[in-house]
Amino acid sequence: MYKNIVDLHVHTDNSFDGNHSATFFCEQAEFMDLRAVAFTDHCEVDQFEGDPTYEKRIFQAFFEIAKVRSAFRGKLLVLNGIELGQPAYDIETANKIINSHDYDQILGSVHNLRGGDDFYFMENLTLPEAEKLLKEYFDALIEMLHWGNFDVLAHLTYPLRYFYSKSNLDIDLNKFKNQIDEILLLTAKSDKALEINTAALRQPLNKLSPEVDIVKRFKELGGKYVTVGSDAHYAEHLAADIDMAYNCAIEAGFDSITFFQKRTPIQMKIEVEE
After folding, report:
1. pLDDT value of position 274
2. Cis omega before residue 210 (within 30°)?
3. Is the pTM of this model over 0.90?
4. pLDDT tens-digit series, residues 45-103
5. What pLDDT score was predicted for residue 126?
6. What is the largest CA-CA distance in the chain?
7. Closest by alpha carbon to 157, among 87, 217, 205, 88?
């Protein structure tokens, strides 16, 4: 069991697919004796202009997190973040969102290709179809990294969750080694953190995102920072399997977990309870 457990990827009911309030999550976190929680509600940048609820949700999320940060001061470190989906598809809007509030941590992610549906909705793909989509997905991550105005690369292998659960496909990532290396190298050179995401351990895929071999490769390529996140959308999933993410970080050669305050990386040593 580890000391000072943190969960740095949590969605409240201000996300379109969230279910519980920031207050309820913080109560759960205090009960679980967590050290820190980062709330990172969704903002899909390529949908922002067409969905008038996004601006309201973002404001509400920031306001509610400010309240719980005050209420739980001294008991729980509460970090105010956001998960920007597809920011490189509309850079002007992405920068406007980032500048609208004083965030601690910005997750960069890609949930869909340009003009396409979230990978969550894709079913009954053939292996060639899935591999083509995955190549385009990795290209989109590279594009996002060249833009670069974020702190943490979230769930690098996100599409694999749904390729497995909805099309029964187990993809060989060795076919994408060059793209993955480019992603990891760009992440390392820009001093961004690589997230070890545990959500797929609660899904049929039953794997970390990414798995330890990729986290090891990130370290080999000069990566300095890793974060851990449950990607919880329900309070009962808060910090779910986070110990597995800590195990992965240690096996990959990292001795610290990183969190961000005012977009500045802070490393916290991984310690085991005696």
Report:
1. 72
2. yes
3. yes
4. 999 988 889 899 999 999 999 999 999 999 999 999 999 999 999 999 999 999 999 99
5. 98
6. 53
7. 205
Section 123-142 average pLDDT: 98
179 touches 135 (CB < 8 A): yes
Beta strand residue intervals within 104-212, DSSP E: 105-109, 152-153, 193-197
What span, in angstroms and rounded, lies between the C-alpha atoms of 29 and 75? 10
Query: Which amino acid belongs to residue 149?
Result: N
DSSP letter, residue 92: H
Two tokens, residue 47: 């949908």
Return left, alpha or beta for 231; rule: phi > 0 is left, psi -120 to 50 is alpha, else beta.
left
Which pLDDT score, from 0 to 100, does residue 273 have? Answer: 83
Q: Exposed e or buried b for every residue in 228-266, given b needs 16+ CB within 10 A? A: bbbbbbbbebbbbbbebbbbbbeebebeebbbbeeeebe
Question: Six-digit token pair at 14?
Answer: 């201000």
| Contact by Cβ (8 Å): 11, 61 | no
